[in-house]
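BUG: 3D viewer hangs when loading the predicted structure for this chain

Environment: internal workstation, default settings.
Expected: structure renders.
Actual: progress bar stalls at 90%.

Input used:
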Amino acid sequence: MADEEALRKIRSVEEQIDILNKKLSIAKQEEEAILSEMDVTGQAFEDMQEQNIRLMQQLREKDDANFKLMSERIKSNQIHKLLKEEKEELADQLLTLKTQVDAQLQVVRKLEEKERLLQGTIGTAERELALRTQALDMNKRKAQESTLLSDEVRDQLEQVQQRLNLVREEVVENSISREKESFNARRAQEDISKLRRKIEKAKKPAEKISNGDEILNEEINDYKARLTCPCCNSRVKDAVLTKCFHVFCFECVKTRYDTVRGSAPSATLHSEPTTSTASTSARSAPSR
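C-alpha cells produced before the viewer hung:
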C-alpha cells in the first residue's frame, strides 16, 4: 500500500511537472510576443518623433512666411500713406487752382467791361485761361488715378488679411495634431512600462514556478480590470471619447451625456461617444 501511494504521489508530481513545463513554454511564447510588440512600438515611437520634427520644420517655414507677409503689409501701409499724402497735396493744388480760376473769372469780367479798350489783353487772358483749364483737367485726371490706386491698395490689403487668417487656421490645426500625437506617445510609453513589468515578472527564477497559478490569476485579473469600465466596474468597455481617447462602456457614457443635457440644456458635450471595438481592443488589451 505504501508503494502504491508513493507511485501515485510520483505520478501526481510528474503530472504537475508536465503542467508546469507547459505553463513555462506558454510564458516563453508570451515573452517572445511581448518582445516583438515592444520592437513594433519602439519603431512607431521613432516614426512619431520623425513626424514631430517634420511638423516643427513646417511650423518654422510658416512662421517665416507669416513674417514676410507682415513685412509686405507694412510696406503696403507705407505706400498707402504716401498715396494719401499725394492725394491731399493734389486736393490742395485743386483748391488753389479753383481760387485762381475764380480770380481769373473776376479779371475776365473786368476785362469784358473794358472790352472796347483792351481787346488785345482779353485775347491773351482767354489763352491763359484755356491753358489753366487744361492744367485743371490734368490735375483732375491725376486725382482720379490716385483714387483708383488707393482702391487697388485696399484690395491688396484685404487679400493679405485673408492669407493671414488662413495661415493662423493652419497653425491652430497643426497644434491640435501635435497634442493628439503627444497623447498617443504617452499611451505608448505607458504600454511599454506595463510590458516591461510583465517581462520582469516572467524572468523570475524557476524557484518561484510554484506560484505560477497566482501570477496567472493576477494577470487575468489585470486583463479583466483593463477590459471593464472604470465607472461601473461591471460592464465591458465598448465606447471611445473621440477628443480625449478615454474608453468607457456605452451605457456610462450615455448616462453621463443625459445628465449633462438635463442639468444644462444649452451645454454641449465636447466629445461624442463613438463605438469602435477595434480601438478599444487595441488600447485595453495590447497582448491580444
